Amino acid sequence: MRYSTVGFLALALIVAASAAMPLLAHHSFAAEYDSKQPVTMKGAVTKIEWMNPHVYFYIDVKDDQTGKIQNWGWEMGAPAVIQRTGWTKNSMKIGDLVIVEGTRAKGGTNHGNARSVTMASTGKKLGAGSSEGQSPEQ
Amino acid sequence: MRNPMSYGFVITVALALFLQPALSSAQARGEQPPAAGAQAGRGARGARGGRGGQPALPSAPTPHWSDGRVNLDATPGAKGFWNVMQGNVVGKGGSSLPTNLTLDEVPFQDWAKALYEYRVSRNGLDDPHARCYPAGGMRFFTVPNGLNIIDQSELGRIFLISGENRDWRRIAMEPGRKHPSEDEIIPSYFGDSIGHWEGETLVVDTVGFNERFWMIRGGLPHTRYLHLIEHFTRINYNSMKYEVTIDDKGAYTKPWSGGWTIPWQTVNYDNSPGGEIHEYFCHDNERDSENFKELGNR
Question: How far is it, in rounded angstroms, from Cα B202 to Cα B71?
Answer without folding.
Answer: 10
